[in-house]
Amino acid sequence: MAMNKQTKPESPIVWQPSNAAEACTLKQQLGEDGVFVAGGTLLRTWWEAGTARMPGHLIDISGISSMQTPITLASSSHDRQICQIGAAALLSEVRNDSYISTHYSLLTTAMKNIAAPSIRNLATLGGNVLSRVGDALPALIVYEAMLLWHDGQGAFEQPLAEWLLEAQANHAWKNRLLLAIILSPVDLSKQEGKYRLDVYHKVGRREVFTPSIATVAISAVVSAERHIVDMRLAVGGGQTMPKRLEHAERLLKGSKLDHSLLQTCYTSVLEHFHPVGDVFASESYRQKTAANLIVSELWKVMQLK
Ligand SMILES: Cc1cc2nc3c(=O)[nH]c(=O)nc-3n(C[C@H](O)[C@H](O)[C@H](O)COP(=O)(O)OP(=O)(O)OC[C@H]3O[C@@H](n4cnc5c(N)ncnc54)[C@H](O)[C@@H]3O)c2cc1C
User: Fold this and answer.
1) Can you tell me the distance from the alpha carbon of 240 to that of 1, in angstroms, rounded to the nearest whole number?
2) Mean pLDDT over residues 159-169, rounded?
3) Per the confidence metrics, is the pTM higher than 0.90?
4) Where's the FAD-binding PCMH-type domain (predicted)?
5) What are the beta bridge partners of residue 19?
6) What is the whole-number distance in angstroms between the Cα of residue 91 and the centre of ligand 1?
């Protein structure tokens, strides 16, 4: 049963539900004055910066054991494994999981690029996703991740990309509890004469411990003749909501890699990626950084013997 741990009148009251249904009931009862907290690393920065007010009640979900499991595997209809990552799994646990690094290497690289160990040992994957600008997002978008929510009535799935768009328009999702992030199987089997490109880059003003200027995740399959068989591209960075670059994907897929295709791809990124600029890096600088990262990776594939 939920316990009231904190009674100091000026501090928020901290509730510790033991399961997801109880957490959702608390949220329904407390309304806007009750806020879910996982690692609290992001909420803390909002309170300190004054961009969010300290609520009267915190619903601490870090003790819900079913949400902490780094991965659960289930067989899909094609006899492949679907991977479910608990929303309260720590970034450090996700980073160190060998199944994730083998099958979803972009996510492992993303984890290595987030903050420092002290933060990664507190922060959760769910909190990173729900920040809407977290560095895990470009990798998860490329893997076409699904979100498993609990809305107080029951659990349901929603594509991550769909939620990102929905979250721009309304805040209804803030009443829901994110239970897990679901990843479909990735076909990693070696295909004769085909090359796999899986890269994740985060470029900041310094190498580590700095917000991203541009973050790029690429997952592609290229034939020996340099035809692009499959191409998924996602970009984000700073306060920009990450997204797939569908126009560039369409241009690239089925085409043969050559210098003119790289030029077209560069132009497409500039036209379709509209990052949020700030005093440190303008929109145009971020666009060019993302376009250069993508094109340079494709250029490297062109050079392969
Ligand atoms: C020094 C520092 C450096 C950082 N560097 C980076 C960085 O490099 N890259 C990066 O992406 N982020 C960075 N962050 C931001 C943050 O640490 C991460 O985004 C982290 O993953 C947030 O997870 P959390 O568990 O701490 O979230 P919390 O702070 O607990 O919650 C964040 C938001 O998500 C909601 N929430 C959390 N879990 C759930 C859930 N399961 N269901 C419903 N709502 C939920 C909360 O209500 C809140 O609105 C940094 C933070 C700090 C303090």
Assistant:
1) 39
2) 95
3) yes
4) 7-188
5) none
6) 10
90 CB less than 6 Å from ligand 1? no
Domains and CATH numbers, the chain: 13-60 (3.30.43.10), 66-183 (3.30.465.10), 194-303 (3.30.390.50)
Structure-block tokens of residue 235: 């970009």
CA of 194 to the centre of ligand 1 (A): 38
* pLDDT greater than 60 at residue 258: yes
Specify whether the CB–CB gap between 161 and 192 falls below 8 A: no
Q: Which residue has the tokens 């030029």?
A: 263
| Residue 255 clears pLDDT 70, i.e. is over it | yes
Distances (CA, A) of 217 to 27, 152, 193, 233: 35, 34, 23, 6
- Identify which has the larger pLDDT, 293 or 10: 293
Centre of ligand 1 from the C-alpha of residue 127, in Å: 4
pLDDT, residue 188, reads: 78
Task: Return the axis-axis angle of helices 259-272 and 283-303, rounded to nearest 10°.
Answer: 160
Whether 35 lines ligand 1, by a CB cut-off of 6 Å, is: yes
